[in-house]
Amino acid sequence: MITQPSKSLETFDNPQPHRDYTIRIDIPEFTCLCPKTGQPDFAHITIEYVPATLCLELKSLKLYMWAFRDQGAFHEAVTNEILNAIVKAIAPRFMRIRAEFNVRGGIYTTVIAEHRDQNWSAPELVKLP
């Protein structure tokens, strides 16, 4: 197999750094391992961010997410680890990660973690008639 999992995240220059806009990425097949039992945990992860000067390259993100497949991690820890790594790579104005884990033992878990640059304020919501 040529392609391998990787913890390296690649970036590219934001083509519109003067404008606030949202990038939404859905990852419906995320897997990691339960650190207690070693059984697989499955999640749908949604990443939303407002880029500053850099954007996240998607193939490297796919390989990054694949790297968790054999890693034991609590839901809360893995969600925050992903947020921290992406924030370190691209320093976005804002980022939210929502990790919706499939049922295990009759319990669903959703973890939402956010980052906001201290110098950024969300623009006022425009309501159209």
UniProtKB/TrEMBL annotation:
> What are its E.C. numbers?
1.7.1.13
Q: Where in the cell is it found?
A: Cytoplasm
- Which amino acid positions bind substrate, per UniProt? L56, E57, L58, H75, E76
- What Pfam families does the database record attribute to this sequence? QueF
Q: Name one GO biological process term.
A: tRNA queuosine(34) biosynthetic process
Q: Which domain of life is it from?
A: Bacteria
This protein is called NADPH-dependent 7-cyano-7-deazaguanine reductase
The gene that this protein is the product of is: queF
